[in-house]
Amino acid sequence: MKVPLLDLQPQTAFFREQIIQQLTEVVDSTRYILGDRVTRIEEEIAGYSGAVAGVGVSSGTDALVASLMALELQPGDKVLTTPYTFFATMGSIIRVGAVPVFADVDERTLNLDPVKAAEVLAADAAGEREIKAIIPVHLFGQCADMTALMSLAEQYEIPVIEDAAQAIGADYPFVEQDGAVTWQKAGSMGLAGCFSFFPSKNLGCMGDGGMITTCDLDFAETLRCYRNHGAKPKYYHSKIGGNFRLDPIQAAILSVKLPHLEQWHKQRKENAQQYRKLFAQAGLEQIRLPEAVYHDAPGAEEHNIHIYNQFVIRTARRDALREYLQEKSIGCEVYYPVCLHQQECLDPLGAYSSQSFPGAEQASMDSLALPIYPELSDEQQEYVVETITDFFSL
Ligand SMILES: Cc1ncc(COP(=O)(O)O)c(C=O)c1O
Questions:
Q1: Radius of gyration (Cα) for the chain, nearest Å?
Q2: Which of 264, 297, 298, 284 is nearest to 372 (CA)?
Q3: Cα of 359 to ligand 1 centre, how many Å?
Q4: Ligand 1 contact, 226 CB (< 6 A)
Q5: Fewer beta carbons within 10 Å, N or C terminal of the chain?
Q6: How far separated are the first and last CA of the chain, in Å rounded?
Q7: Coil, helix or strand for 136?
Q8: Has this prediction a pTM greater than 0.90?
């Protein structure tokens, strides 16, 4: 049996006619830059995410770059983030002339640890106060601890840009100052939320695409200006932005898919529960399952609603297991084998060489993503768990 890490075929077959119809309409409209379709998906995604405005951009990376540009950081300003995420989070910080600084991850969720972040911010506040923004990443589809991180951001008066690239629709039980809990979606809690529509995301387009959501209408206007070369009005540039626009073709595809997103989240969550059941039956002690708690688990601080963009297990024999699964035609992937502070592009003798983030480094050595896409069958999941069980009994 073959189990790919991701199979877009069933989804594509289901929408094929509808999407071709939409594409035909875009072609015939001869409106190929921005326009009504982009405005419509901006409103739809903002509404879905509980934000006030959406700004369609060319990718999740450009969502981060444009958001950081709109903060108008000065060269050398620092941005606090996690060392365990996709490269774009750090690459965007460096591309706008800022300097990434890291705090380690919470080893349960692999998201930025607010306790570690607080230490870094306190040290910064005791000195020059160089940290000018925080980027928590909602890794694998589960929100970072936004109550704690937003409270730190308020204390130090620093804006938060959520990297929600992997987490569209993930719910988070935000605890307000009066203790009341309000469920909020990824991308609606910080000043801005950055989404990616890369095809492997829960909501993917057919190419590259992204969106920035915000509840601040002035910030949305600034983002729109940076998305279009910093022009306002056309040909008058008070700022230097870029061409970060979302294409109407991708916008049309996203509008076809968005109404089905909740159903796909549901199927991914069911698949995660099925894995939990099968792994529990197999009694494997050598692997650790991703920690996530559901709606029906009251009281726990981490009871996020995970949307399972990835289902990431952890095991000391990760590399051998990966090879074994690949031999058995089971797709799996390491997200991420190298932490950001250890990337070759950073000056090897520079500020990062002596830094260590044990939580992130451990995850880079033992994490492995298994197939979790919505249409995965029970038989395929059984085969994955049986094969992993066989590996550990060899
Ligand atoms: C956490 C994170 N941030 C940013 C990005 C960048 O998104 P894109 O690939 O759309 O540029 C990704 C994409 O994989 C991501 O996973």
A1: 21
A2: 264
A3: 21
A4: no
A5: C
A6: 20
A7: coil
A8: yes
